Amino acid sequence: MTEEEQNRVYWEGLRKGDKESFFSLYNNIYFHLVRWGLKITADDELVKDCVTQLFFQLWDKRHRLNPVDNVRAYLFTSLRRMLIEQLGRYSKVDAAITQLADEEVLNELSYEEIIVGVQRDEELRQKLHRALQQLSPRQIELIRLVFFEGLTYEEVAARTSQSIKTAYNTIYNAMQVLRRLLK
To answer: Which residues, in sequence order, are CB contacts of 86 under 8 Å at separation 6+?
Structure first.
């Protein structure tokens, strides 16, 4: 069975409300979506947040989903739309598209551009650190396990002695808090 055929099986299971199929689809395509999203914007936190949000929406709308022949293409298109919506202004989208179209520009950043990028990264890191301090220790632990150690929700649940649903809800609530604080 090809990967796409397997994705279709997971998709059909998701449509029927099967959590195992949902998590299998998530685990099967999460890193592909993140890697692809980073081609649209270098903001890895935004990309990860949008991927997670995309799966939350899929689960919430699972009973209204239609059959899909190419699940991967459907998810990539949905992620692209979500990222463009999140990027907001057309100028940011145009800048991201321009960067995609001209890879040589990406490889030849000036010294000043590199310094500005480092400063922006440091500001973002500090802002994220302050936002993380607003989360509970359990929320921080679960975010670390999923986003930094790359564990699946099943692995997180097993490691923390929680149900998968509790782990999922805890991370969802933490992401909502972070999204609010980082805006």
So the answer is: 46, 50
